[in-house]
Write a structure and sequence with these properties.
By secondary structure, this protein is an alpha/beta fold. The protein contains ten helices and ten strands. Strand 4 (64-69) and strand 5 (72-73) form a beta hairpin. It is globular, with a radius of gyration of 19 Å.
């Protein structure tokens, strides 16, 4: 009887360490992301979340351990190579071309993943595949009516939506979002959650987020990072009830302390 091949995790971190000089920031992280899941990474300020994102996306290289993307070793790969292998990320601070239009920003995302870059001898408008992809993402993020507006004139929430759009425009199957709802009002945050769930259907998502309403509204599983170590991984309900998480991170009264600890309320 034939059996189906076992697929590797979408993303695998094995005993990953990162030190800056004598200071250890990431201390032996082991983490597997299942293909197609939405996974949240939470932890207090200084826990190492952004450092871990930078290791995964190639902006930093691990001191020890390995990182694999669908079975391929990306531990020391460049960000460009990792992106073209199917992983894309956003940043805490909006990272757009503010003098370019919404459509042009999305087209840049589509072009870079295809290795086009700045080729001055080629008319960008003739790249039909990239144009079509930009229009597809434009509709998905709800900014079609803002197509010709320069990014710098968008509202903050629109800019964050556009950055999510640029991140997915390359067609990557693994998406990293770094605090996608930071600075948003509750209504804007709710809209962002709906958008993220919509555009990551069929993709693998890992996000760093401080707003627990967002985490519990999106994530299939949650990992808690404290002082560079993952102390717990599980469903949102399991993390909510985990005594070690409450004691080490959320405080003993989770129901009352969660907003204060994680959203600053």
């Amino acid at each position: 009887m034939s059996t189906s091949p076992v697929l590797p995790p979408a993303l695998r971190l094995a005993d990953v360490h990162k030190s800056f000089g004598k200071t250890a920031i990431i201390r032996g992280v082991d983490l597997d992301l299942i293909e197609g899941e939405r996974h949240a990474l939470i932890g207090p300020n200084g826990a190492g979340k952004s450092t871990l994102f930078n290791l995964i996306s190639g902006r930093l290289h691990a001191t020890a351990g390995t990182i694999q993307l669908r079975g391929a070793d990306i531990t020391r790969a460049t960000p460009q190579a990792i992106n073209r292998m199917g992983l894309a990320r956003s940043f805490q601070v909006t990272n757009l071309f503010h003098r370019m239009t919404v459509f042009e920003n999305l087209r840049c995302g589509a072009l870079w993943s295809r290795g086009v870059g700045y080729t001055f001898w080629r008319r960008v408008d003739t790249l039909r595949e990239a144009n079509a992809r930009a229009d597809e993402v434009l509709e998905a993020i709800g900014l079609t009516r803002r197509r010709a507006v320069v990014a710098g004139e968008l509202t903050y929430a629109e800019q964050r939506a556009l950055e999510i759009g640029v991140t997915i425009a390359c067609g990557a199957g693994v998406i990293l979002l770094d605090e996608p709802t930071a600075g948003m009002s509750r209504s804007e945050s709710d809209a962002a959650v709906a958008l993220i769930k919509k555009v990551t259907i069929g993709k693998t998502l890992i996000l760093v987020e401080h707003d627990m309403d967002v985490v519990f509204g999106i994530a299939d599983r949650v990992s808690v990072l404290v002082y560079g170590e993952v102390i717990a991984t599980g469903t949102p309900d399991a993390i909510h009830a985990n005594i070690r998480v409450q004691e080490a991170y959320l405080g003993t009264d989770l129901a009352k302390g969660i907003d204060k600890e994680l959203t600053g309320a």
